[in-house]
Amino acid sequence: MSTSNLELEVSSSLAAPSLQVPTFHHTPYYCEENIYLLCKKLCDDGLADPDGSDLFVIFISNEKKQIPLWHQKASQRAEGVILWDYHAICVQKKRNENSSSLVWDLDSSLPFPSPLGTYVADSIRPSIQIFSEFKRFFRVVHAPIFLRHFASDRRHMKDSAGNWIAEPPSHEAIVAEDGAVHNLNEYITVSPDDVVKNVEADTVNIVFSEKLGVVIGEDDLLGFFSLIS
């Protein structure tokens, strides 16, 4: 995960646990690994279902790998706006419970975790008009599937000379259960053709069975999680 020069023209109450980001593993610019480890820790610490069935990993990206988000700690601009090439967050939604969804974003300056509605309004800001090339798409992957299949050998964080663009995490690179060593591009590569046009119950069912989940637009994010019951 890295940043770009930012050139944009912009025309529920929930009782959540108050946690500190430092209690979770965080390596700047390695959001995909941070989220992988966050999901595991939430399960291990009893903050999520033991198998992670109430967790969903979301990769935010687009064709140009330029997605604006607000309230990001790495930003030096007003209101924490930054242009990532992609970003990964975790959404927690209990099934068969009348509970709100929580967003776990280790790179956000918003409360940790934040209600999904608050995060969408303050960090994604769909009400703000942006150029079409900055339109964001959301790949939603069920965490138990993600934890089995995701792999990264961090090759995307090296320059042409083989030097690190950002210092890598100290832990070993993540290898998938099937032996894959790097498939990050499968998760962050999205296009308008991938986006589900009508989000309905069948869309949710796909997430619980497909390795790469489903891709939805920002206007459907809240509606998607309201269908999980």
How does this structure look, described?
This protein is an alpha+beta fold and 229 residues long. It has helices at 31-44, 116-124, 143-149, 184-188, 201-207, 221-226, and strands at 55-61, 67-69, 82-84, 87-92, 102-104, 114-115, 137-142, 214-217. The protein contains six helices and eight strands. It starts with 30 loop residues before the first helix and ends with a helix. Residues 7-16 have low confidence and may be disordered.
Summarize the structure.
Helix content is 21%, strand content 15%. The protein contains six helices and eight strands.
Keywords:
6-stranded antiparallel sheet; 21% helix; single chain; two-stranded antiparallel ribbon; alpha+beta; 6 helices; 15% strand; 8 strands; 229 residues
- Gross morphology: globular
Name the strands of the widest sheet in spatial order.
6-5-4-1-7-8
Task: Please report the total strand number as a whole number.
Answer: 8
Strand content: 5-15%
Give the SSE order as H and E letters: HEEEEEEHEHHHEH
Rg of Cα set = 17 Å
Low-confidence stretches: 7-16
Subunit organisation of the chains: single chain
Describe the sheet with the most strands: 6 strands, antiparallel
Task: Report how far the terminal alpha carbons are from each other.
Answer: 32 Å
Mean pLDDT: 91
Structural class: alpha+beta
What's the SSE blueprint?
Layout: H1 31-44, E1 55-61, E2 67-69, E3 82-84, E4 87-92, E5 102-104, E6 114-115, H2 116-124, E7 137-142, H3 143-149, H4 184-188, H5 201-207, E8 214-217, H6 221-226
Antiparallel strand pairs: 1-4, 1-7, 2-3, 4-5, 5-6, 7-8
